[in-house]
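Hi there,

I know you've been waiting on this one. I reran it after we fixed the sequence typo, so this is the corrected version. Both the input and the resulting structure follow.
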Amino acid sequence: MDMRTSETGGLDAMETGALIRSGALTSVGAVRASLARIDRLDPTLHAFVLRLDERALEMAAERDAERDAGRLRGPLHGVPVAVKDLFDIEGFRTGSGSRCFPDHVAQMSATAVRRLEAAGAIIVGKTHTVEFAFGGWGTNPVLGAPRNPFDVDVHRAPGGSSSGSAVSVASGMVPLALATDTGGSVRIPAAFCGLFGHKSTPGLIGRGGMRFLSRSHDSIGALARSVRDLRAVIALLAGPDPDDAASGDAPTDLFTPARPIGAFRLATFDDPAFARLDEEVRAIFEATLVQLGQRFGEVARIAPPVPMETLCAQAGRLMAAESYATLHAVTEDPATDIAPEIRARINLGREVTATELAGLHELKRTWKAHFATLFAPFDVLVMPGMPILPPPLAEIDQSNMALSIFGRYVNMLDLCAVSAPVGLSRDGLPVGVQLIGRPFADAHLLDLAGALEQEGLAACRPPSI
């Protein structure tokens, strides 16, 4: 079959790139197929806030000319991708899921965007996010919430805040999307949309040109339909960023396993938060633990440094304080068009005094040290992706913190994580698990996720759309 003009929605980024490099598919053909799928699906799914059709096709033609001349930029050469609307792209607006910045036009692309494009990737558009990226359900009353593609009849939560990135990948509009994670914003939509998602170790990937919510918790990640796509992203993006003082050199042994995968030592938390698990989610999670135990040995149950609910609450205070410092000018202005729950969430930060903020950072350091001691005998913490199945938007209670309790502790403890899809509910809704590791164990987690993928314990199952 001639792949030059065929539908590419079922391919991952590495497959697409391989076809382009071989000449079986052109970059222009891949981008056109992506744009055609966006034309067909996005009026229903609402994943994109900005399309870059003309720019993408021009860049694709350049990548094809380079390939024809024998110049290849790497595995993502000519591959269409999307980025969350928190990343600057030179000459275009960065909206952060809000109407509050109508005049913001980026003068330079974000570091992560520049590195993706230098590696040959073609950005076809920017994806929706929860307003200011402060929310886990994926809702956005101001600009509209993307639709979870696993239910075409009921508008279900896609997960947030990287809602559009997840929907664009799960639906096959693009094979790969850049996202961010402050308290679960990669892992929640990965679990709800049946994808692999990577939340990077703080400092591993530079955040220059990215809109911040909470500087101490924000990290860059990606959403994909295969683990190898996530490995390609981390290889491209890891390293120092002159526009992000918190970034540093990637460890020289980043891709060197601490030990053979079969010898990884696994644990899970023993915590009252597990009582929040939906019956089907619990059954799939426990079955996964059994499968992991058979493959790797018993999965130990350990206590978190403090209860997960406490970790969540204090992380929320810290996030509110830091987001308020950044956004108070717009959230305190009653004339701005902001979702009421987002305004209230950020304005909680005004209650946090400088003394309390210093105390929260000290708590963070104390809990990180405590966790490091508790976790010393282990390599991977295995946790539910989300405690519930993606609910209909009409049933969402914005005050329900269940998603945050299963997400924020990773950011509070400065850990890395990979979300992996491990099953479907009776109604065909995705269920995921989180593989969590100590700082800079990112590639080791991807090794484990890749092993689960190869053995059929984790798999991306595209929705029927």
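Quick highlight: Residues 1-6 have pLDDT under 50 and may be disordered.

Best,
R. S.
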